[in-house]
Specification:
The chain has 11 helices and 14 strands. With 313 residues, it is an alpha/beta fold.
């Protein structure tokens, strides 16, 4: 693989804390811009690397972004207000960060610059029972977060020199931990509360380990010419599970864990679908981290984490 100058926005976040060190290990020059809104120090171990540069800044700063993007061969835009609850809490900021800033970046890029973009597969919204969502399935996002991501993806793919990764729900330990993601949340509750209340426990979704997200991006960088201009679902093909089924997997490790289905109420995050990952698998990508391995890893990691400051909301 060639060595590139890579700009990673939001590179100190949940995905970036894993991805940036791996990109550096491959010999790339990596610049991270992050506003450190969670006071994280997730990239401290990278600072000794002369190929690593770090700026505290905001992707809404057009002058800063123009300066940084001018030097980059590859842009990986991870910066976002991630998830439906956080976006609903401040929809104006969500529109600025998740929609306007990335669209502005697209306009400032040259056709030679490459983009590797994370999109959420929550854009599929509510799927048809028993029918897998492929990259050809119409996007029907429900949340504001999903709607913004779908709009950005259209602009990214119109750029041409880009790959969009439609990520399943991510799980696993990371330097900037998130406890609000479904698997991470359920395992945390299993370890600490031994119970969880489920709203609409039959709702299904797909899952992917945070380290496999990095592996997918590196895979895309290495096979860029063959994969560019397309969207790819990125998830575990053996993990299209309902919330109840997920709880069953956790119970294999923690038998005293009790999921309780709520008789009233509903899930504010309405997504319910199963996903096909055949398209990216056909390019040679296979996840390396199973759901069970991730659950075991989280149980171990939660010996260190005892409060909720690691969530987005």
């Amino acid at each position: 693989m060639d060595n590139y100058k890579i700009l990673v926005t939001g590179g100190a976040g949940y995905l970036g804390g894993i991805m940036v060190p791996e990109l550096l290990a491959l010999g790339h020059e990596v610049t991270v811009v992050d506003n450190f809104m969670f006071d994280q120090a997730s990239l401290g171990h990278c600072c000794a690397n002369p190929k690593f540069d770090l700026l505290r800044g905001d992707i809404r700063d057009k002058a800063l972004m123009a300066k940084l993007m001018a030097k980059a061969d590859v842009i990986i835009p991870l910066a976002a207000l991630v998830g439906a609850p956080l976006c609903n809490r401040d929809p104006y900021a969500a529109e600025q960060v998740n929609l306007e800033a990335p669209l502005g970046m697209m306009k400032a890029l040259s056709k030679d610059q490459r983009i590797l973009m994370p999109i959420t597969n929550s854009g599929y919204g509510v799927g048809e029972a028993g029918k897998f969502c492929t990259e050809e399935t119409p996007m029907r996002p429900i949340s504001l977060y999903g709607k913004h991501k779908v709009e950005v993806e259209a602009a990214v793919l119109a750029h041409g020199n880009a790959i969009s990764f439609r990520l399943a729900t991510v799980f696993g330990m990371a330097p900037r931990m998130r406890l609000d993601l479904l698997v991470n949340d359920f395992v945390y509750r299993a370890v600490n509360d031994r119970a969880v209340v489920l709203f609409e426990g039959h709702f299904k979704r797909n899952y992917i380990h945070v380290r496999d997200v990095t592996r997918a991006f590196i895979h895309g960088l290495g096979k860029f010419e063959a994969m560019k201009g397309e969207a790819y679902n990125v998830g575990l093909s053996d993990a299209n599970l309902s919330k109840l089924e997920l709880c069953g997997r956790i119970q294999k490790f923690l038998p005293k864990f009790v999921p309780v289905e709520a008789p009233v109420g509903e899930d504010p995050d309405k997504r319910d679908y199963i996903v096909s990952n055949e398209k990216i698998e056909a390019t040679g990508f296979k996840p390396a981290h199973s759901l069970d391995a991730g659950i075991a890893e989280l149980i171990k990691g939660y010996q260190m984490i005892r409060n909720s400051r690691y969530g987005n909301v």
